Amino acid sequence: MTVSFKKDIEDMPLQPLTSNSTSTSDGMVKFLAKQYSVDIKSCCISDLKDIAIFLSQVDELEHYPLRKMIANVEVRLSSVLRHPETAKKYKNEINAIGEQYKNTQ
Question: DSSP code of 41?
């Protein structure tokens, strides 16, 4: 979803600087950003926070890396938007934690 949002912004046609349509572009970016925030919260953030709460009640230390990742997800996704080159590293971190859970079953 984050990568898709970044692509939507990048795919917007650029208006000439002499054009009065700059406010239209700004409005579209703000609209897409607002929609992204709604989408990411409805699909993921609420559920992730519920999972983090559950994990802290089960065993606070055992699930610390996952809880820390969940707590920082919004900051990290914002960072991916600003610095797309960090997306692969973040994905690898997520996959590494996922592998830890796969190996414990």
Answer: I
* Structure confidence at residue 11 as a pLDDT band (50, 70, 90): low
pTM: 0.61
- Alpha-carbon separation of residue 10 from 13, 23, 28 (angstroms): 8, 17, 12
Please count the structural domains in the chain.
1
Measured CA to CA, the distance from residue 54 to residue 43 in angstroms comes to 18
Q: Is residue 14 part of a domain?
A: no
Q: Is the predicted pLDDT of residue 34 greater than 70, yes or no?
A: yes
Which of these, 43, 51, 47, lies nearest to 4 by C-alpha position? 43
**Full domain range(s) for residue 81:** 2-9+19-103
